[in-house]
Every structure is written in structure tokens, then in C-alpha cells.
Amino acid sequence: MDLLNLPSFPCKIKEVKGKPYIFDSIRRKFILLTPEEWVRQHFIHLLLNHYNYPRALFAVESGMVYNTMAKRSDILVLSATGTPFLLVECKAPGIRIGPAVFNQIARYHFTLRPQYLAVTNGKEHFCFTVQANGEVVFLQDFPKYR
User: Fold this and answer.
1) Tens of pLDDT, residues 114-137
2) CB neighbour list of residue 56: distance below 8 Å, 6 or more residues apart
3) Beta-sheet strands, E only, within 91-140
4) Cα-based angle 50, 29, 77 (whole degrees, multiple of 5)
5) Which of 5, 35, 87, 128 maximizes the CB count within 10 A of its CB?
6) What is the distance between the alpha carbons of residues 100 and 107, in angstroms, rounded to a whole number?
7) Euclidean distance between CA atoms 75 and 88, whole angstroms
8) CA atoms of 19 and 32, how far apart (whole Å)
9) pTM of the predicted model, to two decimals?
10) Could you report the per-residue pLDDT of 40-68, keeping only the tens digit for each?
11) Are strands 125-130 and 58-66 parallel, antiparallel or unpaired?
């Protein structure tokens, strides 16, 4: 797997029928290790170990409906009151973070209305918030969990 611009963590990897699987501590099971999953697991551990996000408030690959179409968000962290706090869209390291990725998370924002949004391919990361007037404000860092 690619080296990422994210802290490493002691991941558990096993092989099943010749394919690598990584343990997801949020879903509490082994998941097929794809390049996107590699980024997702590193980002989950960044939020848990460096930003003190509570494990119990994570939803990984949770379903939602956008314009009658079923979609899945990569990482959603809820606030203590159960409202969406941070929504993260993960891409494989080889995927460029460009307009298509920002359009995708904008559609999810329309449905979920999280306070913060982030996109990452493991090498580049962008975190931002959308103001009531629609203005996008990029942050220098990810928000710490309060």
C-alpha cells in the first residue's frame, strides 16, 4: 500500500483466500483492504488518536438517501447530541482531489448538514465548513472534538 501523509498506526491485517483484509475498529470486523480502505482506516485512527474523537460516535460507510438514490458516506462523526459533526470523504491515494470529489461531498452535505466536511486521498487533505450564506471556509486543521 502507498505511504500516506497520515500518522501510521498498529493495523491488523490478515489474508483471506489470497486477499488482504484490515481490521476496522469501528465496525469491529475485517474489511477487504483496498487503497480507499487504507486511507479510511488511517484517517479514522487520526481522528481517534490525534483529535480525540469518541469511537462511539463514528459511523463508517453509513447509508443515506440523496434525491431518491442510496449513497454511503465514508466517515461520519456525530456530535454528543447526535447531529452530524464531521463528514469525511476518502479516496484512494491515486485519485486527485478535484471538483468531482468536492461535488460529491457537497451532495452529501445537502442531505446530512454536518458542521464540518473533509476530503482526503491520504496524501492531500482539505477540511472546511459551509456558512449559512453558502460560503465555503477552508480550515488550517481538522477540528478537535469538543
Assistant:
1) 999 999 999 999 999 988 888 889
2) none
3) 116-120, 125-130, 136-138
4) 40
5) 87
6) 11
7) 5
8) 7
9) 0.89
10) 999 999 999 999 999 999 988 776 555 55
11) unpaired
Q: State the Cα–Cα distance between residues 134 and 116, nearest whole angstrom.
A: 13
The answer to whether the CB of 111 falls within 8 A of the CB of 65 is: yes
User: CA gyration radius for the chain?
Assistant: 15
Looking at the chain, the whole-number percentage of residues with pLDDT higher than 70 is 94
Please compute, for residue 123, the number of CA atoms within 13 A of its CA located in the half-sphere on the CB side: 10
Question: How many angstroms separate the CA atoms of 141 and 104, rounded?
Answer: 21
Which helix (H) or strand (E) segment is 46 a member of?
helix 35-50
Q: Report residue 67 as a C-alpha cell.
A: 434525491
Cα–Cα distance for residue pair 97/90, rounded to 1 Å: 10
